[in-house]
């Protein structure tokens, strides 16, 4: 599960790091966020043919664009389904209709600086059986300090209630692909987003790569991650500031998972 992440790098820095040729204006202007939540606007890196006048298409170009987090399938009646599709499990990518087609033709990278996960803890002695399970939030990020290129899928959804010339008639949405947690991270949570290494970016974005080959990419090597506990403030989407990444000085987790480089 990946339900919160942070993306606060400048658009040009992301473009330079991921060899992006074009930056959409709305993606350039998106504010930095230390607490990205489902249905938020997020940046995605895609490779698509350039649009030319007269409906023609040009060469394939890598671009930084904007999407809504939570994939809305093209066949959906309305976009509300996206809130339930923020993640796509590697184990069922080829089985679920919402993900199978995008896996073959609409793959993306979601540039992040890291993500958050919550570790479930044991109830204290004497606590009622129905007591709320305590959790410790963690900040998880690439151990080399580089960008976390989250493997994702994107889709286009047409709002049939809007006119053909309405610029708001199309919604672009995206989902983050997740997999079973690595040995280092499974103490925190049993799932983790697929963070692709630099050597996999080109193949993942390449429109000529098919679904079967793409499966080999998301089930292959991933980036090493570092972790440390953070405070509870990240649990509220109203909180969005750099201090969310600060180490929790008094974590409730009695067995802190720290793997800082």
Q: What would you say this structure looks like, in words?
A:
This protein is an alpha+beta fold and 261 residues long. The chain has a domain at 5-114 and 146-183 and 192-222: Alpha-Beta Complex (hypothetical protein yedk fold), CATH 3.90.1680.10. It is built from 5 helices and 14 strands. Strands 2, 4, 5, 6, 7, 10, 11, 12 and 13 form a 9-stranded mixed sheet that branches. A 5-stranded antiparallel sheet has the order 3-1-8-9-14, with no helix packed on it. Helix 3 packs across helix 5 (211-218). 34% of the residues are buried.
Largest beta-sheet details: 9 strands, mixed
Could you give the distance between the termini?
A: 24 Å
What integer is the average pLDDT?
A: 93
Tally of contiguous helical segments = 5
Number of E strands: 14
Poorly predicted tracts of residues: none
- Using the CA coordinates, give the radius of gyration: 19 Å
Q: Tell me, briefly, the overall form.
A: globular
| Protein structure class | alpha+beta
Order of helices and strands: EHEHEEEEHEEEEEEEHHE
Helical percent range? Answer: 10-25%
Which second-level CATH architecture of the domain at 5-114 and 146-183 and 192-222 applies? Alpha-Beta Complex
Strand proportion, as a percent range, falls in 25-35%
CATH topology of the domain at 5-114 and 146-183 and 192-222: hypothetical protein yedk fold
